Amino acid sequence: MAGAHTLNETERQVSTLLRGMKIDFKAMAVVSNLFRASSAVRKHLEREVLSKHSLSWTGFVVLWVVWVWVEIETREIAEEVGTSKATLTGVLKTLERERLITKRQSKSDRRLVLVTLTAQGKKLMERIFPEFNKEEVYLASSLRPNDRKVTADGLRTITLHAEGGSTSSPGQRKRSTKQRTRKKIQKR
Fold this sequence. Notes:
The chain is mainly α. It is 64% helix and 7% strand. A hairpin with a 7-residue loop joins strand 2 and strand 3 (113-117). The N and C termini lie far apart (48 Å).
């Protein structure tokens, strides 16, 4: 259920509302189902995994990004997570208070704040991610094994297209500002 109405009820209502309009219903179905799936998956993972560790979705994604990149600037975290710097500030304060991350000023540019996981933060991610992945396996099991790759590839293509990148050859995309900045950080 996507809200107060079932998925079928919502689809019937929208079909009736838009009848007669020149609408690409297949494209609309792709995007609306992508949104619905994303919301449902997020709620499922919050309920089944994250709430047990007193983590919000955004808190977990911040920890994930920092875990992956080891040390990363706050503005890059905000971009990766898809949140404002103001929202990120509150999340980082919470994670810092819980002793899961540390922040420090860059030595080369004091305006930049770099974030890393603490030992406790690393242990949490090493403990929580297998639980998270078990739920990913559960959710993906609704697809036939062959459809999992097709679905993942299709979603990746939509993501690249929405971000303005090439969908034909991801390896040929120009390096983004994010990638150039990450190289600078690695030199520090």
